[in-house]
Amino acid sequence: MSARISNNSTPIRVLGIVGSLRGGSHNARLMEVARRALPADAVLETWGGLGDLPHYNEDIDTPETAGHAAGDLRAAIASADVLLLVTPEYNGTIPGVLKNAVDWASRPAGVGALKGKPAAAIGSSTGQFGGVWAQADLRRSLGIAGARVIDAEFAVPRAAEAFVEHDGEVSLADESVLPALAELLESLVEEGRKNRSAREMATAEAA
Ligand SMILES: Cc1cc2nc3c(=O)[nH]c(=O)nc-3n(C[C@H](O)[C@H](O)[C@H](O)COP(=O)(O)O)c2cc1C
Asked: 3-class SS at 62?
């Protein structure tokens, strides 16, 4: 059964990462739209350290040399219930900075922060398809990295005209697509609720 409120009164923690470093990013605006479309029992925190991550290199992947941002990314993912990635499309795929983050979060192999983590990929681009190739590539990469990827797409095309702002609040110009976004987010958060319940049952059994 799908419970809207998890057994635990602590909200489901959604970690959001925007795959653009640009000030004024359309994808950052889409993240804000998603924040308001989340189920009532979920809260969104965003992680903004993409630009501080070193290029992934196994030689520097040690606690001493990986750097603060890499450790911080892994800790942020580990403590989140679910991940929401919002990505632009660059030359038909995801921006290098976002792929770099997936690579950092995928290691150590088999036990990285992404292992078993429910994740969804949405995005926006100024093109007419909304960056669907980037989102598909991101879903594939996350899955290979061990995440449990939500098989749903939400792409906002023609980003330059797709967002409107009133009193500092961002909305979609075409609000008819919002139910599809809310449905995708509900599926994502539901995976977080299930994980939460499974962990609580395991703890109760062990006690
Ligand atoms: C290097 C680069 C490559 C791009 N390639 C694509 C592309 O393949 N498909 C597409 O729809 N838009 C492409 N765009 C346009 C982006 O969709 C647009 O710049 C978008 O606003 C970027 O997201 P942001 O606003 O969140 O930074 C590209 C932009 C850049 C800078």
From this structure: coil
Q: How confident is the model at residue 96, as a pLDDT?
A: 98
CA 162 / ligand 1 centre spacing (Å): 14
> Is pTM beyond 0.70 here?
yes
Spatial distance between the Cα atoms of 75 and 109, rounded to a whole number of angstroms? 16
The per-residue pLDDT for range 122-171, each reduced to its tens digit, is 999 999 999 999 999 999 999 999 999 999 999 999 999 999 999 999 99
DSSP string spanning 153-182? --EE-SHHHHEEEETTEEEES-GGGHHHHH
How many H-runs (helices) and E-runs (strands) does the chain carry? 6, 8
CA of 129 from ligand 1 middle (Å) equals 11
CATH classification of 12-206 is 3.40.50.360, yes or no?
yes
Distance separating alpha carbons of residues 31 and 25, to the nearest angstrom: 10
